[in-house]
Specification:
The complex is a heterodimer of chains A (about 90) and B (about 425).
Chain A lengths: L2 E4 L3 E4 L4 E5 L11 H8 L8 E7 L7 E7 L5 E5 L6 H4 L1
Antiparallel strand pairs in A: 1-2, 3-4, 4-5, 5-6
Chain B lengths: L13 H9 L17 E7 L3 H12 L6 E4 L15 E2 L6 H15 L1 H5 L10 E5 L2 H16 L5 E4 H7 L14 E5 L3 E2 L2 H14 L3 E3 L4 E7 L2 E7 L2 E11 L4 H6 L7 E13 L7 E3 L5 E5 L4 E12 L7 H14 L8 E12 L5 E4 L5 E5 L5 H18 L13 H4 L16
Classes of the chains: A mainly beta (about 90), B alpha/beta (about 425).
Chain lengths: ~90, ~425
Amino acid sequence: MLLIPCPYCGARPQDEFHYRGDATVKRPAPDAGLQALYDFVYTRTNPRGWHLEWWHHYAGCRQWVKVERNTLTHEIRTAVGPAEDTPQLSA
Amino acid sequence: MPARIEPIADRYSAWRLLKEGISGNRGWKQAWRKPEPKARYDVVIIGGGGHGLATAHYLANVHGITNVAVVQKGPIGLGNGGRNTTIVRSNYLLPSNTRFYEYSLKLWEGLEQDLNYNVMVSQRGQLSLFHSDSERDAAVRRGNSMRIQGVDAVLVDGEAVRAMLPFLAMDNPMFPILGGLLQPRGGTARHDAVIWGFARAADRRGVDILEHCEVTGIRRDGGRVVGVETTRGFIGARKVGIAVAGNTSRVAAMAGLRLPVESHLLQAFVSEAIKPLINCVISFGAGHFYISQTDRGGLIFGGDLDGYNSYSQRGNLPLVERLMGVGVSMIPALSRLRVLRQWAGIADMTMDGSPFICRTLIEGLYLNGGWCYGGFKATPASGWCFAYTIAKDEPHPFNADLTIDRFLEGRMIDERGAGPNPWAQ
C-alpha cells in the first residue's frame, strides 16, 4: 500500500487516489509544431528511479497533487500542490 | 559459417526417453552452451526472454543467419517469460492485431515439431463471459470480426455456459452471466518450456546465448549501429535488435530514442493444487479477471495493472484485494482456496495498448516491445516477424502496422479505445 502524503489531508492510502501519469510533461505552445505536440501526448521518459507524477485525490480533497515517487523502490519523497515545484526537481 | 545440425542421437523423442530411462538418464546433454562472447556478430539481440530467443531461432532457421548472439543480463527467461499466465489466444477485434496474433496462434500449433521440444500447448478453449445485452452485442461484433478474418469464434449462450462450467455464479443479481464468446483454439502453453525450447533450438543452429551479459550502452558510428557495450566487454554487430519488454524505454534511451511507453506492474497468482475444475481459460466480463488451471492443479489467475509506473517487479495489496473480490464474484468457490504464490512482472504499456516491431531511425537498430498484456501469446510471431524485419530490413505484412511511427501519423491500433493513458489500456 502506498501512503501518499497529500499536502491538504496528510498521509492517505493510495486507494483514495487515481493515478494520472507523468507530471513533467508540459503542453507546448499552440504553434510549437506537430513533433512537440506528439511528444506532449505520447512520449514519456519512463525513468527507473525518481518520477514526478500526478495523483488525483478523488476520495479526499479532490485536488490533483504532484508526488515524487521512486519507481524502483516505491519510496515517496515529496507531495506538493499542483502549482508548486518540488524542492528536489527545482534545485 | 554453416549452420550446425543437431545429431539424430541428440533429438528428443519417445525412443530417446525410453533409452535414457533404462540407462539411468546419463546421456542427456546440456540444452544450450555457455559460450564466451565473440568479438563480432552479424546480429546481436538484446534480451534473452521468449521474444529475443524466438527471434534468434527464426533468424537461424528461416533466414539462415546463424552468426547471432542473444545477450541477457542474468539467466534467460527470468523476466516476463517466467511471470505470465501462459494464455495463448487470438480473439482480437482490429485487423492489425488479429492478423498478427492469429499467425502467432498458428505458430503455436506447430511449435513443438519446429523446436523438437514439448512446450505443452493445450488448446483447451478461451471463453470471454458477457453479462448484459450490450456486452453481448460487443461479443457478437468481435466474434464476427474474428470469423471474417478466418479465426474461430463461437457464441455460447447462458445455458451452455452453465453446462460447461457449473461452478460459475450464473445468477449474480448485478452481473448475471448471459453467455460467452468462445475461441476453441485458444488455451495455454508451458511458459518455461517455451524459453528452453527456443533457447535449445537456436543454440543447435549456432546462436550464442550470452547469459550474465548486461548491455550498458549501444555504440554508434554516425547514424549507424556498430555494436553494444556490455559488462563482458564490447561486442560488435552489424545489426542490433532490442527485445526487452518492460525495460524498453531504458534500453532505447541508450540509443537516444524516446518512446510512447510506460512501465507498469502486472500481477499474477496461483492457488494450491486441486482436482480438475476448470477445463478452459475463462475471462470475466464484469471485471478484469482471467483464470485457468495448470496441469499441476493450481488455479492461475490475474487481472488489472497496479496502475502506476513501476520497475519494482513487486505487486501491491490494493490490487490484490480488488482482484480477489472480482474473482470470488465470478467463482464463489475461490473464497475457500488458499493462494500459494503471487508475483508481478513489468509490462511495457504503450499509448494505444498495442505493441511495436519495427525499424528505427538509426540504421541497423531494430525495436521490439510495447507488449502490454499480450507478450506471452505473441512470443512465436513476435520472434518470427522481428527476425524477418531484421533480415530483410523491412517489415512483414503481419507487423507492417506495428510501428512506433503510428502515433505521430495518427494510425493508432487502439483495441480498447482508452486514450493515451498507458495505465488504462
